[in-house]
Amino acid sequence: DLKDPETGAPLTVHHIYDARITPLDDGLFVVTAVDTDQGCRLAVWRANGKSQAGFAGLNQLELVSINLNRDTRNGVLFPEKIGGRYLMLDRPNDRRSGGGPMTGRGIVLSASDDLVDWEDLGPVMAGRTHFWDELIGSGPPPVKTREGWLHIYHGVATHFLGANIYQAGAVLLDLEDPGQVLGRTVNNILEPREMWEMTGQVPNVVFPGGLTVAATDDEGFAKTTSELKLYYGAADTAVGLAVSTVAEVIAACEKGE
């Protein structure tokens, strides 16, 4: 049973969504948003089963922890410990967009020894006013490259006569200190253009949620020549697939394109 940490009152869960899947510790972990009466919280789940290649044979998720101390969303785990600790990116909800749900414009970094208790390590990056990424949030788990952690995030332009437009960009984070940004795309790398991205339950949305690379080297770094596949939600109605290479997206971060 979930209870409010301040009042002790039971928490009612309304929705569980925005799952981000991370291979970690020889298993699969999932971070989800959880809507409660007290706001949105992040939960960490462990997938029961032996398969790391996919969900074949995985029949349930076991709750590891839920952060009840702040309203936040867009949580994603790094695929390995850094400095001996688990790390997570998330986006605190500190403002409301129009009449919609709470949202935010900054991604922060947290650390944990056990995936249960989390320590705030500070801000990583913020949205850019009057640009394509005024509001931001983390997308799929970061990918380890020789140049840094490659991370895809979503950005929201809110200044088009009240119509929010969800897009995607990329950022390169330091391998040993992911709180440090090494490079960031100036322009988006993906935007709604197709009819099925512009019309649907929530129009004008591309929302990155999954990322795979075709090849890694012997030390687990993504090869720059590797194909990169980005899976994204389109208008909250369909699922899209965008294809690039690791080298191309890294170059866009480093050059600020």
TrEMBL record:
<comment type="similarity">
    <text>Belongs to the glycosyl hydrolase 130 family.</text>
</comment>
<dbReference type="InterPro" id="IPR007184">
    <property type="entry name" value="Mannoside_phosphorylase"/>
</dbReference>
<protein>
    <recommendedName>
        <fullName>Glycosidase</fullName>
    </recommendedName>
</protein>
<dbReference type="GO" id="GO:0016757">
    <property type="term" value="F:glycosyltransferase activity"/>
</dbReference>
<dbReference type="InterPro" id="IPR023296">
    <property type="entry name" value="Glyco_hydro_beta-prop_sf"/>
</dbReference>
<keyword id="KW-0808">Transferase</keyword>
<keyword id="KW-0328">Glycosyltransferase</keyword>
<dbReference type="Pfam" id="PF04041">
    <property type="entry name" value="Glyco_hydro_130"/>
</dbReference>
